[in-house]
Amino acid sequence: MAATTNKRRLLTHLMLGLLFSAAAACLFAPDAAAHAAYESSSPAFAEVLDESPDQVSIRFSQELFRREGANAISVQHADSGDQVAVGPAVITNDDRRLMAVGVRDTLAPGRYLVSWINLSAEDGDEDSGTFPFYVASQPTDAEQSDDRRIAADLLISYPGDEPQPSSTNPTPAPTAPAVVRADDTPDPGLGMGPILFLGVGIAAGLVLVGALGYHLGSRRRGA
Q1: In angstroms, what CA-CA distances link 97 with 8, 46, 89, 107?
Q2: Is pTM, for the whole model, over 0.70?
Q3: How far apart are CA 157 and CA 174, in angstroms?
Q4: What value, to the nearest 5°, has the Cα angle with vertex 63 and ends 162 and 148?
Q5: 81, 76, 64, 73: which is closest to 102 by C-alpha?
Q6: Where are the domains of the chain?
Q7: What is the pLDDT of residues 153-210, one digit of tens each?
Q8: Reported CATH class of domain 38-154
């Protein structure tokens, strides 16, 4: 009787372990939390401009879904917090990963923060974030430190921190700081990975439940 109880416990623990493993794989599978993330912008991240820009544009990793109030860009002076007058956000027809606003004010020298919200057309996820740029003003040490924190939040490299090319295979240096996503993947969408993990987990659970039921039924009939 004790041996039968131990076998039942072993099978139960095995089934639960496999089910939890399948669930964890679904939760932590790559791209499970995909969204239309920041890829690049104009002005570029932490770029120092000689004069006020006429437009601010952002390129994202996924196409955007047009819905009223779901996509927007705002600009404010970093020190005063004053909002810059900008036009409505426009998603271009030829490239729906690109969103832009016209800048109506002439920006005084200083640091500016661009904030956005968006809605992915590929997976329906919302995203938001911020990036800095400068007009006729070099960033201070404190501003650079804050810019590095913002870059880390966006999962990108701070301009100038990208790995240097090998001296044995030199490549031309970019004319402007390039922002590189630290965790860039060929397909930023949700993909089929989590769905397959979930299907495998459910199938494994059903098989184990059936095996356990058959085992217990056989024991009862044998008794």
Answers
A1: 55, 21, 13, 26
A2: no
A3: 15
A4: 30
A5: 73
A6: 2-30+192-222, 38-154
A7: 999 999 988 766 655 555 555 444 444 444 444 444 444 444 545 565 566 566 555 6
A8: mainly beta
